[in-house]
Amino acid sequence: MLLCEIAGISRSAYYKWLDRSPSKNENLNEEILKEIIDLYNKVDGIYGYRRITMNLNRNRLKSINHKRVYRLMRIAGIQSVIRRKRKKYKPSTPQHVAENVLNRNFKAEKPNEKWLTDVTEMKYGSSQKAYLSAILDLHDGSIVSYVLGTSNNNPLVFKTVDLALEANQGATPLLHSDRGFQYTSPTFKIKIDKAKIVQSMSRVGRCIDNGPMEAFWGTLKSEKYYLNKYSTLEELKKDIDEYIHFYNYERLQKRLNGLSPLEYRTKAA
After folding, report:
1. Closest CA to 213 of 243, 176, 242, 268
2. What average pLDDT is seen over the chain?
3. With 70 as the cut, is the pLDDT of residue 108 above it?
């Protein structure tokens, strides 16, 4: 055969290769690749090889090495679809300013010890704006409460705090935010003082002071928001509700010992 001659392979070797049975390792690779593709499609391609490895190993007796998953994903031509965008910041004139009590100490020994909060902007329809306010617990990274609205105002932020306190009766956490006008208003100060919450604020222009909250916005937007177009507020809200439920209950995290935030929170409780 011409191809055998070009490749320098004997005909007998070629026919022996044709008749051979796949090895145990090749069969295992096919099995793993099928699981990878099924999981990748299930989460709309937002997982990279590390998170896919973590999910696959959760239900396996024998763990798969992340390098193997990476290699199989490259062979299959699949990779995470995540894209990141930088947040734009608007300066505000503060009426009340708190010290940076948190001071980038992002570790919490128990639930409801340290909360972070912020508001982010999203768009739908013909450049209409929506605003998402949320509170994140530093102990497990879970989203304690969130509110989506069409106005970036005090009621949006106040309701977020109210929902967090309702869901966690008796909680008196440290609450850290940036210096947005909602958090520096005298009314907000009165509200959190009444709830016996200690207020903490980032320094001017230091978004890293609220790093884990910023990281959550990046994750939410890259894994859901940037991958879709929204015609209505209802469509946007539906995806946010679904994603935050997924993030809290299903999205496994290495730093949480391979558990989801609420699994880790439940164990702590």
Report:
1. 176
2. 88
3. yes
How distant is the alpha carbon of residue 260 from its chain centre?
11
pLDDT at 72: 87
Residues 71, 77, 79, 84, CA torsion sign? positive
Helix (H, G, I), strand (E, B) or coil at 128: strand
Query: What strand order describes the sheet that includes 174-177?
Result: 143-149, 128-137, 114-124, 174-177, 198-201
> Amino acid identity of 233?
L
Say how many C-beta atoms besides its own lie within 10 A of residue 185's C-beta: 17
pLDDT tens figures, 3-54: 555 556 676 766 665 666 677 787 888 888 888 888 988 988 889 989 999 9
Structure tokens that stand for 103 in this block:
């001071």
Question: 76: Cβ–Cβ under 8 A, 6 or more apart, which residues?
Answer: 33, 36, 37
Answer whether 57's CB lies under 8 Å from 49's CB. Answer: no
8 Å CB contact between 256 and 264: yes
Whole-angstrom Cα distance, residue 76 to residue 8?
Answer: 29
User: How many residues are there in the chain?
Assistant: 269
CB neighbour list of residue 246: distance below 8 Å, 6 or more residues apart: none
